[in-house]
Design brief:
Transmembrane segments: 53-85, 105-126, 174-195, 215-233, 240-260, 272-298
Pfam family, one: DUF2232
Protein name: DUF2232 domain-containing protein
Order of helices and strands: HHHHHEEHHHHHHHH
Number of strands: 2
Strand order of the largest sheet: 1-2
Mean pLDDT: 85
Shape: globular
Organism: Microvirga aerilata
Strand content: under 5%
Number of helices: 13
Keywords: Membrane, Transmembrane, Transmembrane helix
């Protein structure tokens, strides 16, 4: 029953990190962003059931001290995605030789993207009670505030009224795309960090594959195409399509980075190349990630590393979830 005690502890810690957001300070915002990590650590290091206990305990704690809706939001947005990804990470089966075959990290990355997109879409649906007009107005308010903060008011030194309105409309439409893109990045980073922490404590049951060997299945490319088509539809179907598009493009960008890590292994100047690449990603504010996403998509679709050398990552086998 150790998983119950660890789950209760992780749930309370995660709930506390979530609840401090009411302080509305930069430190509170930072602590809030770290809320999924306790759930990930106990799920990976003890038992995935610890994550379920943490979701229930943390949700109940927030429901009692803040509001029932906040407690439900914690469970759906913070705890359950962390538990689900940990559960998938610990899936395994013995192969013909009796060795354990673990859930492939490439397929896990695809689930990170899907989980991020579904969470963002569910959060929008939950927060507005299924009212798309309310969701659209909320997204427009956020976009308008961003534009007003970044650009001078309309006039000789700022954007003209038509351009400002077009920019606000574009950002409103892209809100689920950008939100899912950021959330997919956070989930992938947190899962990697939690796995490394648990691995350092000798509690991680599986070996963690090197990042350069990351390769998503070809089905991820199909999901991206379907998502781009869905994104053209109005309503919450379009919201889900936008969220899936943003999350999977980010996942492919991460695979593109992994492919470059792979192609530069053993090469002179590798540290300089990778440092320059990350600096460019930061300086261009993510614009370079579009090229990396296309590279990652091509790597999955055409098997570039299998064709031109490298670690030759295999297409991951199908393991039941």
């Amino acid at each position: 029953m150790n998983f119950v005690a660890t789950g209760i502890g992780a749930g309370l810690v995660s709930a506390l990190l979530t609840a401090v957001i009411v302080k509305a300070t930069p430190l509170a915002a930072l602590l809030y962003l770290l809320a999924p990590i306790p759930v990930l650590i106990v799920s990976l290091g003890w038992d995935h059931r610890s994550g379920l206990v943490a979701a229930v305990v943390g949700g109940l704690a927030i429901a009692v001290f803040l509001s029932p809706l906040s407690g439900l939001g914690f469970a759906l947005i913070t705890a359950l995605p962390a538990w689900w990804l940990s559960y998938l990470a610990l899936l395994g089966r013995p192969d013909a030789d009796g060795a354990m075959e673990w859930y492939p990290v490439g397929r896990l990355l695809a689930w990170v993207a899907a989980t991020a997109a579904l969470t963002i879409a569910a959060a929008g649906l939950l927060s507005t009670g299924g009212d798309y007009a309310a969701f659209h107005q909320s997204a427009r308010s956020v976009s308008e505030a961003f534009v007003n903060a970044q650009f001078a008011p309309a006039g000789p030194e700022g954007l003209d009224a038509d351009t400002r309105e077009q920019l606000i409309g574009l950002l409103t439409r892209l809100t689920p795309f950008l939100s899912a893109q950021g959330f997919a990045t956070v989930l992938a980073l947190y899962l990697w960090a939690a796995a490394r922490i648990v691995q350092a404590s000798k509690r991680l049951p599986r070996p963690w594959a090197p990042v350069p060997e990351l390769a998503m299945p070809r089905a991820a490319g199909v999901v991206l195409i379907v998502a781009l088509v869905m994104a053209t539809v109005d309503g919450f179907i379009g919201v889900l399509g936008m969220a899936l598009s943003g999350a999977f493009l980010m996942a492919f960008a991460l695979q593109g980075l992994a492919a470059i890590h792979d192609r530069t292994r053993g090469k002179s100047g590798r540290a300089f190349i990778l440092s320059t690449l990350y600096v460019l990603v930061f300086v261009t504010q993510g614009i370079l990630m579009v090229a990396l996403a296309l590279f990652g998509l091509a790597d999955t679709t055409f098997g570039l590393r299998r064709r031109f050398g490298g670690s030759r990552p295999k297409q991951p086998p199908t393991l039941s979830a």
